[in-house]
Specification:
With about 475 residues, the protein is an alpha/beta fold. The protein is about 40% helix and about 20% strand. The longest helix has 21 residues. The structure holds adenosine monophosphate and zinc ion.
Length: about 475
Protein backbone atom coordinates (compact mmCIF):
# COMPACT_ATOMS: atom_id res chain seq x y z
CA UNK A 1 0.00 0.00 0.00
CA UNK A 2 1.27 3.49 -0.86
CA UNK A 3 0.42 6.66 1.02
CA UNK A 4 1.50 10.27 0.75
CA UNK A 5 3.60 11.21 3.75
CA UNK A 6 3.65 14.93 4.53
CA UNK A 7 6.98 14.44 6.32
CA UNK A 8 8.82 13.70 3.09
CA UNK A 9 6.23 15.26 0.72
CA UNK A 10 6.06 12.08 -1.35
CA UNK A 11 4.08 8.92 -1.78
CA UNK A 12 5.84 5.98 -0.20
CA UNK A 13 5.26 2.33 0.62
CA UNK A 14 3.44 2.03 3.93
CA UNK A 15 5.27 -0.10 6.50
CA UNK A 16 3.75 -0.25 9.97
CA UNK A 17 5.94 -0.72 13.04
CA UNK A 18 4.26 -4.02 13.91
CA UNK A 19 3.40 -6.28 11.02
CA UNK A 20 -0.30 -6.10 10.09
CA UNK A 21 -1.11 -3.70 12.93
CA UNK A 22 -1.60 0.02 12.58
CA UNK A 23 -1.70 2.56 15.38
CA UNK A 24 -3.29 5.74 14.19
CA UNK A 25 -4.21 9.11 15.76
CA UNK A 26 -6.60 11.70 14.37
CA UNK A 27 -7.00 15.21 15.76
CA UNK A 28 -10.61 15.42 16.85
CA UNK A 29 -13.13 18.24 16.98
CA UNK A 30 -12.98 21.38 19.08
CA UNK A 31 -16.41 21.12 20.62
CA UNK A 32 -17.62 24.70 20.93
CA UNK A 33 -19.98 24.62 17.97
CA UNK A 34 -21.43 22.27 15.37
CA UNK A 35 -19.00 20.47 13.08
CA UNK A 36 -19.38 21.82 9.55
CA UNK A 37 -19.21 19.72 6.42
CA UNK A 38 -15.60 20.86 5.90
CA UNK A 39 -14.58 19.38 9.24
CA UNK A 40 -16.54 16.28 8.34
CA UNK A 41 -14.63 15.95 5.06
CA UNK A 42 -11.48 15.45 7.13
CA UNK A 43 -13.15 12.76 9.27
CA UNK A 44 -14.43 11.09 6.11
CA UNK A 45 -10.89 10.96 4.73
CA UNK A 46 -9.68 9.37 7.97
CA UNK A 47 -12.53 6.89 7.84
CA UNK A 48 -11.58 5.94 4.28
CA UNK A 49 -7.97 5.49 5.33
CA UNK A 50 -9.01 3.19 8.14
CA UNK A 51 -11.29 1.19 5.84
CA UNK A 52 -8.57 0.84 3.21
CA UNK A 53 -6.11 -0.36 5.86
CA UNK A 54 -8.69 -2.90 7.04
CA UNK A 55 -9.32 -4.00 3.44
CA UNK A 56 -5.58 -4.63 3.12
CA UNK A 57 -5.68 -6.89 6.17
CA UNK A 58 -4.36 -4.50 8.80
CA UNK A 59 -5.80 -4.39 12.29
CA UNK A 60 -6.22 -0.70 13.11
CA UNK A 61 -6.33 1.03 16.47
CA UNK A 62 -7.67 4.53 15.93
CA UNK A 63 -7.51 7.10 18.72
CA UNK A 64 -9.37 10.37 18.38
CA UNK A 65 -9.37 13.20 20.87
CA UNK A 66 -12.01 15.69 21.85
CA UNK A 67 -10.53 19.16 22.28
CA UNK A 68 -12.59 20.56 25.12
CA UNK A 69 -10.04 23.05 26.43
CA UNK A 70 -7.00 25.04 25.29
CA UNK A 71 -7.70 25.65 21.58
CA UNK A 72 -7.28 29.40 21.24
CA UNK A 73 -8.97 31.58 18.65
CA UNK A 74 -5.58 32.52 17.24
CA UNK A 75 -2.51 30.47 16.35
CA UNK A 76 -0.33 33.07 18.06
CA UNK A 77 -1.21 31.97 21.62
CA UNK A 78 -2.78 35.32 22.32
CA UNK A 79 -6.45 34.67 21.60
CA UNK A 80 -9.32 33.49 23.76
CA UNK A 81 -10.09 29.85 24.53
CA UNK A 82 -12.71 28.80 21.96
CA UNK A 83 -14.66 26.79 24.54
CA UNK A 84 -14.79 29.58 27.15
CA UNK A 85 -15.84 32.02 24.41
CA UNK A 86 -18.51 29.65 23.13
CA UNK A 87 -19.90 29.12 26.62
CA UNK A 88 -20.18 32.86 27.24
CA UNK A 89 -22.01 33.30 23.94
CA UNK A 90 -24.50 30.58 24.74
CA UNK A 91 -24.74 31.40 28.46
CA UNK A 92 -24.11 27.80 29.38
CA UNK A 93 -21.26 26.19 31.26
CA UNK A 94 -18.18 25.12 29.31
CA UNK A 95 -18.80 21.53 30.40
CA UNK A 96 -22.35 21.67 29.09
CA UNK A 97 -21.43 22.98 25.66
CA UNK A 98 -18.54 20.51 25.37
CA UNK A 99 -20.90 17.62 26.09
CA UNK A 100 -23.64 18.95 23.83
CA UNK A 101 -21.41 19.44 20.77
CA UNK A 102 -19.56 16.17 21.39
CA UNK A 103 -22.85 14.27 21.32
CA UNK A 104 -23.89 16.14 18.22
CA UNK A 105 -20.60 15.37 16.52
CA UNK A 106 -21.01 11.65 17.21
CA UNK A 107 -24.45 11.78 15.63
CA UNK A 108 -22.91 13.43 12.53
CA UNK A 109 -20.36 10.64 12.27
CA UNK A 110 -23.12 8.05 12.45
CA UNK A 111 -25.13 9.75 9.71
CA UNK A 112 -22.10 9.63 7.44
CA UNK A 113 -21.25 6.00 8.20
CA UNK A 114 -18.00 7.06 9.83
CA UNK A 115 -17.23 4.36 12.36
CA UNK A 116 -16.31 5.63 15.80
CA UNK A 117 -12.64 5.41 16.81
CA UNK A 118 -11.48 2.58 19.06
CA UNK A 119 -10.61 5.12 21.73
CA UNK A 120 -12.12 8.54 22.43
CA UNK A 121 -10.01 10.71 24.68
CA UNK A 122 -10.91 14.10 26.12
CA UNK A 123 -8.25 16.75 26.70
CA UNK A 124 -9.75 17.53 30.12
CA UNK A 125 -9.34 13.88 31.18
CA UNK A 126 -5.59 13.93 30.59
CA UNK A 127 -4.46 17.14 32.32
CA UNK A 128 -2.09 15.18 34.62
CA UNK A 129 -0.40 13.54 31.62
CA UNK A 130 0.01 16.93 29.99
CA UNK A 131 1.57 18.38 33.14
CA UNK A 132 3.98 15.40 33.23
CA UNK A 133 4.96 16.08 29.63
CA UNK A 134 5.65 19.76 30.36
CA UNK A 135 7.71 18.76 33.42
CA UNK A 136 9.78 16.48 31.19
CA UNK A 137 10.31 19.31 28.72
CA UNK A 138 11.28 21.60 31.60
CA UNK A 139 13.76 19.03 32.93
CA UNK A 140 15.39 18.85 29.52
CA UNK A 141 15.69 22.62 29.26
CA UNK A 142 13.15 23.32 26.52
CA UNK A 143 10.85 25.66 28.46
CA UNK A 144 10.76 29.21 29.80
CA UNK A 145 8.18 31.18 31.70
CA UNK A 146 6.78 34.60 30.75
CA UNK A 147 3.90 36.58 32.21
CA UNK A 148 1.11 34.63 30.50
CA UNK A 149 2.45 31.08 30.60
CA UNK A 150 5.08 28.42 30.09
CA UNK A 151 6.52 28.37 26.58
CA UNK A 152 8.47 25.95 24.38
CA UNK A 153 11.77 27.31 23.12
CA UNK A 154 11.92 26.20 19.50
CA UNK A 155 15.52 27.43 19.09
CA UNK A 156 16.70 24.67 21.43
CA UNK A 157 15.64 22.04 18.92
CA UNK A 158 18.04 21.25 16.13
CA UNK A 159 15.33 21.18 13.49
CA UNK A 160 12.03 22.84 14.24
CA UNK A 161 9.32 22.69 11.55
CA UNK A 162 9.85 19.18 10.19
CA UNK A 163 6.64 19.33 8.19
CA UNK A 164 7.47 22.55 6.40
CA UNK A 165 8.76 22.48 2.87
CA UNK A 166 11.04 25.32 1.78
CA UNK A 167 8.21 27.54 0.56
CA UNK A 168 6.15 26.93 3.70
CA UNK A 169 9.14 27.72 5.90
CA UNK A 170 9.39 31.26 4.56
CA UNK A 171 5.60 31.70 4.42
CA UNK A 172 5.18 30.53 8.02
CA UNK A 173 7.84 32.84 9.39
CA UNK A 174 5.58 35.75 8.65
CA UNK A 175 2.44 34.01 9.86
CA UNK A 176 3.20 33.34 13.49
CA UNK A 177 2.49 36.58 15.26
CA UNK A 178 4.57 37.67 18.18
CA UNK A 179 3.52 37.36 21.78
CA UNK A 180 5.55 40.25 23.20
CA UNK A 181 7.84 38.41 25.60
CA UNK A 182 8.41 35.32 23.46
CA UNK A 183 12.05 34.47 22.75
CA UNK A 184 11.47 33.26 19.18
CA UNK A 185 8.65 33.88 16.78
CA UNK A 186 7.71 30.18 16.52
CA UNK A 187 7.72 29.46 20.29
CA UNK A 188 4.37 28.24 21.57
CA UNK A 189 2.51 27.95 24.86
CA UNK A 190 2.62 24.68 26.78
CA UNK A 191 0.69 25.97 29.79
CA UNK A 192 -1.25 29.22 29.91
CA UNK A 193 -1.96 31.01 33.19
CA UNK A 194 -5.54 31.94 33.96
CA UNK A 195 -5.96 35.68 33.40
CA UNK A 196 -5.62 37.59 36.69
CA UNK A 197 -8.77 39.61 36.22
CA UNK A 198 -10.99 36.74 35.14
CA UNK A 199 -12.21 33.44 36.60
CA UNK A 200 -12.07 30.73 33.98
CA UNK A 201 -14.55 27.86 34.17
CA UNK A 202 -11.86 25.34 33.27
CA UNK A 203 -8.59 25.71 35.13
CA UNK A 204 -6.22 23.46 37.04
CA UNK A 205 -3.38 23.66 39.57
CA UNK A 206 0.08 23.08 38.14
CA UNK A 207 3.69 23.44 39.31
CA UNK A 208 3.77 26.77 37.45
CA UNK A 209 0.47 28.25 38.57
CA UNK A 210 -3.26 27.90 37.95
CA UNK A 211 -4.13 27.67 34.30
CA UNK A 212 -4.82 25.37 31.38
CA UNK A 213 -2.79 23.41 28.84
CA UNK A 214 -1.82 24.51 25.34
CA UNK A 215 -3.62 22.80 22.48
CA UNK A 216 -0.43 21.40 20.94
CA UNK A 217 0.56 19.75 24.21
CA UNK A 218 -2.77 17.98 24.57
CA UNK A 219 -2.47 15.94 21.39
CA UNK A 220 1.04 14.70 22.25
CA UNK A 221 0.01 13.57 25.73
CA UNK A 222 -3.17 11.88 24.48
CA UNK A 223 -1.59 10.11 21.52
CA UNK A 224 1.48 8.84 23.39
CA UNK A 225 -0.65 7.68 26.32
CA UNK A 226 -2.87 5.57 24.08
CA UNK A 227 -0.52 4.52 21.29
CA UNK A 228 3.03 4.70 22.60
CA UNK A 229 5.82 6.42 20.64
CA UNK A 230 6.41 6.29 17.77
CA UNK A 231 3.09 5.20 16.36
CA UNK A 232 2.26 4.70 12.68
CA UNK A 233 -0.01 7.39 11.26
CA UNK A 234 -1.05 10.82 12.50
CA UNK A 235 -3.74 12.64 10.53
CA UNK A 236 -5.72 15.83 10.44
CA UNK A 237 -6.83 18.61 8.13
CA UNK A 238 -4.22 20.47 6.08
CA UNK A 239 -4.45 23.57 8.31
CA UNK A 240 -2.93 21.55 11.13
CA UNK A 241 0.23 20.85 9.16
CA UNK A 242 1.71 24.30 9.47
CA UNK A 243 1.64 24.89 13.22
CA UNK A 244 -0.22 22.31 15.31
CA UNK A 245 1.49 19.22 13.95
CA UNK A 246 4.97 20.77 13.81
CA UNK A 247 4.54 21.69 17.46
CA UNK A 248 3.44 18.17 18.33
CA UNK A 249 6.52 16.75 16.61
CA UNK A 250 8.78 19.28 18.36
CA UNK A 251 7.55 18.40 21.85
CA UNK A 252 7.79 14.65 21.32
CA UNK A 253 11.29 15.00 19.92
CA UNK A 254 12.36 17.19 22.83
CA UNK A 255 10.76 15.09 25.57
CA UNK A 256 11.36 11.57 24.28
CA UNK A 257 14.00 11.95 21.57
CA UNK A 258 11.71 10.22 19.11
CA UNK A 259 9.59 11.03 16.10
CA UNK A 260 5.97 11.07 17.29
CA UNK A 261 4.55 9.26 14.26
CA UNK A 262 6.20 7.73 11.18
CA UNK A 263 3.57 8.92 8.68
CA UNK A 264 1.69 12.22 8.66
CA UNK A 265 -1.35 12.54 6.44
CA UNK A 266 -3.45 15.63 5.75
CA UNK A 267 -6.83 16.08 4.14
CA UNK A 268 -7.36 19.13 1.91
CA UNK A 269 -10.03 21.70 2.64
CA UNK A 270 -13.61 21.94 1.56
CA UNK A 271 -14.29 25.50 0.48
CA UNK A 272 -17.31 27.48 -0.56
CA UNK A 273 -17.27 29.17 -3.95
CA UNK A 274 -15.96 32.46 -2.67
CA UNK A 275 -15.03 31.88 0.93
CA UNK A 276 -13.38 29.42 3.28
CA UNK A 277 -15.65 27.30 5.39
CA UNK A 278 -14.64 27.87 8.98
CA UNK A 279 -16.37 27.93 12.31
CA UNK A 280 -14.60 31.14 13.26
CA UNK A 281 -15.79 33.04 10.17
CA UNK A 282 -19.36 31.88 10.82
CA UNK A 283 -19.89 30.76 7.21
CA UNK A 284 -20.68 27.13 7.74
CA UNK A 285 -22.90 24.44 6.33
CA UNK A 286 -23.73 21.53 8.59
CA UNK A 287 -25.30 18.16 7.87
CA UNK A 288 -28.46 19.58 9.38
CA UNK A 289 -28.48 22.46 6.86
CA UNK A 290 -28.09 19.92 4.08
CA UNK A 291 -30.93 17.86 5.44
CA UNK A 292 -33.19 20.90 5.52
CA UNK A 293 -32.47 21.25 1.81
CA UNK A 294 -33.46 17.63 1.30
CA UNK A 295 -29.90 16.37 0.77
CA UNK A 296 -29.07 13.09 2.44
CA UNK A 297 -25.86 12.78 4.48
CA UNK A 298 -24.68 9.89 2.31
CA UNK A 299 -24.92 12.11 -0.78
CA UNK A 300 -22.30 14.26 0.93
CA UNK A 301 -20.26 11.12 1.59
CA UNK A 302 -20.54 10.31 -2.13
CA UNK A 303 -19.35 13.81 -3.05
CA UNK A 304 -16.25 13.33 -0.91
CA UNK A 305 -15.60 9.85 -2.32
CA UNK A 306 -15.57 11.37 -5.76
CA UNK A 307 -12.81 13.86 -4.92
CA UNK A 308 -9.32 12.86 -3.84
CA UNK A 309 -8.53 13.76 -0.24
CA UNK A 310 -5.44 15.77 -1.26
CA UNK A 311 -7.37 18.00 -3.69
CA UNK A 312 -9.32 21.05 -2.69
CA UNK A 313 -13.04 20.58 -3.07
CA UNK A 314 -15.45 23.40 -3.75
CA UNK A 315 -18.91 22.83 -2.42
CA UNK A 316 -21.81 24.02 -4.54
CA UNK A 317 -25.48 23.20 -5.06
CA UNK A 318 -24.58 21.66 -8.42
CA UNK A 319 -21.88 19.42 -6.97
CA UNK A 320 -24.11 18.08 -4.23
CA UNK A 321 -27.02 17.59 -6.66
CA UNK A 322 -24.76 15.63 -8.94
CA UNK A 323 -23.62 13.47 -6.01
CA UNK A 324 -27.19 12.85 -4.87
CA UNK A 325 -28.29 11.84 -8.38
CA UNK A 326 -25.33 9.52 -8.83
CA UNK A 327 -25.97 7.94 -5.46
CA UNK A 328 -29.61 7.34 -6.31
CA UNK A 329 -28.59 5.73 -9.59
CA UNK A 330 -26.23 3.48 -7.69
CA UNK A 331 -29.02 2.47 -5.32
CA UNK A 332 -31.35 1.71 -8.20
CA UNK A 333 -28.68 -0.42 -9.78
CA UNK A 334 -28.02 -2.24 -6.52
CA UNK A 335 -31.73 -2.81 -6.11
CA UNK A 336 -32.03 -4.18 -9.61
CA UNK A 337 -29.05 -6.50 -9.14
CA UNK A 338 -30.06 -7.69 -5.70
CA UNK A 339 -32.30 -10.47 -6.98
CA UNK A 340 -29.89 -11.91 -9.55
CA UNK A 341 -29.25 -15.62 -9.69
CA UNK A 342 -25.99 -17.04 -8.51
CA UNK A 343 -23.36 -17.73 -11.21
CA UNK A 344 -19.71 -18.80 -11.22
CA UNK A 345 -17.00 -16.18 -10.96
CA UNK A 346 -15.28 -15.19 -14.21
CA UNK A 347 -11.75 -13.94 -14.80
CA UNK A 348 -13.17 -10.49 -15.40
CA UNK A 349 -14.59 -10.56 -11.88
CA UNK A 350 -11.12 -11.18 -10.42
CA UNK A 351 -9.64 -8.47 -12.58
CA UNK A 352 -12.10 -5.88 -11.26
CA UNK A 353 -11.42 -6.99 -7.71
CA UNK A 354 -7.67 -6.62 -8.18
CA UNK A 355 -7.97 -3.29 -9.96
CA UNK A 356 -10.18 -1.98 -7.18
CA UNK A 357 -7.59 -2.90 -4.57
CA UNK A 358 -4.89 -1.24 -6.62
CA UNK A 359 -6.83 1.99 -6.87
CA UNK A 360 -7.65 2.28 -3.19
CA UNK A 361 -4.14 1.23 -2.14
CA UNK A 362 -2.56 3.94 -4.27
CA UNK A 363 -2.80 6.76 -1.72
CA UNK A 364 -6.57 6.30 -1.42
CA UNK A 365 -7.49 6.81 -5.06
CA UNK A 366 -11.16 6.42 -4.19
CA UNK A 367 -12.38 8.61 -7.10
CA UNK A 368 -10.59 6.19 -9.46
CA UNK A 369 -12.17 3.22 -7.73
CA UNK A 370 -15.60 4.84 -7.98
CA UNK A 371 -15.22 5.56 -11.69
CA UNK A 372 -14.13 1.95 -12.21
CA UNK A 373 -17.21 0.78 -10.33
CA UNK A 374 -19.46 2.57 -12.83
CA UNK A 375 -17.56 0.91 -15.70
CA UNK A 376 -17.94 -2.43 -13.97
CA UNK A 377 -21.71 -1.96 -13.64
CA UNK A 378 -21.95 -1.40 -17.41
CA UNK A 379 -19.71 -4.33 -18.35
CA UNK A 380 -21.63 -6.85 -20.45
CA UNK A 381 -19.09 -9.59 -19.77
CA UNK A 382 -20.05 -9.79 -16.10
CA UNK A 383 -23.17 -11.50 -14.77
CA UNK A 384 -25.58 -9.51 -12.61
CA UNK A 385 -24.64 -11.72 -9.72
CA UNK A 386 -20.95 -10.89 -10.11
CA UNK A 387 -21.74 -7.19 -10.38
CA UNK A 388 -23.75 -7.31 -7.19
CA UNK A 389 -21.05 -9.22 -5.35
CA UNK A 390 -18.41 -6.73 -6.47
CA UNK A 391 -20.58 -3.79 -5.48
CA UNK A 392 -21.09 -5.22 -2.00
CA UNK A 393 -17.38 -5.81 -1.66
CA UNK A 394 -16.44 -2.30 -2.82
CA UNK A 395 -18.97 -0.82 -0.43
CA UNK A 396 -16.76 -1.98 2.44
CA UNK A 397 -14.74 1.08 1.45
CA UNK A 398 -17.43 3.37 0.03
CA UNK A 399 -19.72 2.93 3.03
CA UNK A 400 -22.89 3.85 1.13
CA UNK A 401 -25.15 1.19 2.67
CA UNK A 402 -25.46 -0.72 -0.59
CA UNK A 403 -25.77 -4.01 1.30
CA UNK A 404 -28.99 -2.86 2.90
CA UNK A 405 -30.66 -2.43 -0.50
CA UNK A 406 -32.65 -5.53 -1.17
CA UNK A 407 -35.77 -6.04 -3.20
CA UNK A 408 -38.83 -7.65 -1.70
CA UNK A 409 -40.76 -10.50 -3.29
CA UNK A 410 -42.81 -8.08 -5.39
CA UNK A 411 -39.78 -6.49 -7.00
CA UNK A 412 -41.66 -5.04 -9.91
CA UNK A 413 -42.85 -2.34 -7.51
CA UNK A 414 -42.01 1.15 -8.68
CA UNK A 415 -40.89 2.23 -5.23
CA UNK A 416 -37.49 2.14 -3.61
CA UNK A 417 -38.02 3.01 0.02
CA UNK A 418 -35.48 3.68 2.74
CA UNK A 419 -36.68 3.53 6.32
CA UNK A 420 -34.84 3.32 9.59
CA UNK A 421 -35.27 0.43 11.98
CA UNK A 422 -33.36 0.83 15.23
CA UNK A 423 -31.48 3.70 13.55
CA UNK A 424 -30.21 1.38 10.80
CA UNK A 425 -31.24 1.95 7.19
CA UNK A 426 -33.43 -0.70 5.63
CA UNK A 427 -34.40 -0.68 1.96
CA UNK A 428 -37.59 -2.14 0.61
CA UNK A 429 -39.97 -1.91 -2.29
CA UNK A 430 -43.02 -2.45 -0.16
CA UNK A 431 -45.05 0.76 0.16
CA UNK A 432 -46.96 -0.73 3.10
CA UNK A 433 -44.03 0.06 5.39
CA UNK A 434 -44.82 3.78 5.14
CA UNK A 435 -47.02 5.49 7.71
CA UNK A 436 -50.58 5.62 6.36
CA UNK A 437 -50.55 9.41 6.02
CA UNK A 438 -47.34 9.36 3.95
CA UNK A 439 -48.49 6.44 1.83
CA UNK A 440 -51.72 8.22 0.89
CA UNK A 441 -49.81 11.37 -0.02
CA UNK A 442 -47.36 9.38 -2.16
CA UNK A 443 -50.25 7.76 -4.02
CA UNK A 444 -52.01 11.08 -4.44
CA UNK A 445 -48.80 12.58 -5.81
CA UNK A 446 -48.44 9.73 -8.30
CA UNK A 447 -51.90 10.45 -9.57
CA UNK A 448 -51.17 14.16 -9.98
CA UNK A 449 -47.99 13.30 -11.85
CA UNK A 450 -49.86 10.95 -14.15
CA UNK A 451 -52.22 13.84 -14.93
CA UNK A 452 -49.24 16.17 -15.39
CA UNK A 453 -50.46 18.43 -12.57
CA UNK A 454 -46.90 19.39 -11.61
CA UNK A 455 -47.70 22.23 -9.24
CA UNK A 456 -50.09 20.09 -7.24
CA UNK A 457 -47.59 17.26 -7.17
CA UNK A 458 -44.92 19.67 -5.84
CA UNK A 459 -47.28 20.85 -3.13
CA UNK A 460 -47.81 17.30 -2.05
CA UNK A 461 -44.07 16.70 -2.05
CA UNK A 462 -43.69 19.63 0.37
CA UNK A 463 -46.34 18.10 2.62
CA UNK A 464 -44.45 14.82 2.57
CA UNK A 465 -41.21 16.67 3.41
CA UNK A 466 -42.86 18.29 6.39
CA UNK A 467 -43.72 14.84 7.69
CA UNK A 468 -40.00 14.00 7.57
CA UNK A 469 -39.82 12.11 4.28
CA UNK A 470 -38.08 12.81 1.00
CA UNK A 471 -39.36 11.85 -2.44
CA UNK A 472 -37.23 11.76 -5.57
CA UNK A 473 -38.17 10.64 -9.04
CA UNK A 474 -35.51 8.66 -10.78
CA UNK A 475 -36.30 7.11 -14.15
CA UNK A 476 -39.39 4.98 -13.75
CA UNK A 477 -38.80 4.55 -10.01
CA UNK A 478 -39.78 6.73 -7.09
CA UNK A 479 -37.27 6.84 -4.27
CA UNK A 480 -38.72 7.56 -0.85
CA UNK A 481 -36.46 8.15 2.11
CA UNK A 482 -37.12 8.64 5.76
CA UNK A 483 -35.12 11.58 7.12
CA UNK A 484 -33.24 10.95 10.34
CA UNK A 485 -34.26 13.29 13.08
CA UNK A 486 -31.24 15.39 14.00
P1 LIG B 1 -11.61 21.82 14.65
O1 LIG B 1 -12.91 21.32 15.20
O2 LIG B 1 -11.64 23.27 14.28
O3 LIG B 1 -10.46 21.51 15.59
O4 LIG B 1 -11.33 21.04 13.30
C1 LIG B 1 -11.56 19.69 13.14
C2 LIG B 1 -10.90 19.16 11.89
O5 LIG B 1 -11.47 19.72 10.72
C3 LIG B 1 -9.41 19.42 11.80
O6 LIG B 1 -8.76 18.24 11.35
C4 LIG B 1 -9.30 20.54 10.79
O7 LIG B 1 -8.08 20.51 10.13
C5 LIG B 1 -10.44 20.18 9.85
N1 LIG B 1 -11.00 21.31 9.07
C6 LIG B 1 -11.30 22.56 9.47
N2 LIG B 1 -11.86 23.29 8.46
C7 LIG B 1 -11.91 22.47 7.38
C8 LIG B 1 -12.37 22.61 6.01
N3 LIG B 1 -12.93 23.75 5.56
N4 LIG B 1 -12.26 21.53 5.18
C9 LIG B 1 -11.71 20.37 5.62
N5 LIG B 1 -11.27 20.17 6.88
C10 LIG B 1 -11.36 21.20 7.76
ZN1 LIG C 1 -4.22 17.57 17.42
Amino acid sequence: MKIYNSLIKKKEEFKPIKEKEVRMYACGPTVYWFAHIGNLRTYLFENLLRRVLNYNGYKVKLVMNITDVGHLTSDSDSGEDKLEKGAKKERRSVWEIAQFYTDFFKKDLELLNIDEPDVWVKATDTIDDQIELIKELEKKGFTYIISDGVYFDTSKLEKYGRLWGDSERSEMKGRIEEVKEKRNQADFALWKFSPKDEKRQMEWESPWGIGFPGWHTECVAMSVKNLGIPFDIHCGGIDHLFIHHNNEIAQAEAAYGKLLSNYWMHGEFLNLKDSKMSKSSGTIITLRTLKQKGVSPLAYRYLCLNNHYRSKLTYSEESIDFAENSLNKLYEKAFELSHSEETDYSEKYNKYKNDFKEYISDDLNIPGALAMTWDMLKDKELSDFEKHELLLDFDKIFGLDVASIKSEENDNSKYIIKIFKNELPVWTSNIEVLPQEVKLLIEEREEKRRNKEWEKSDEIRDKINKLGWQVEDSGDKTIIKQGLSI
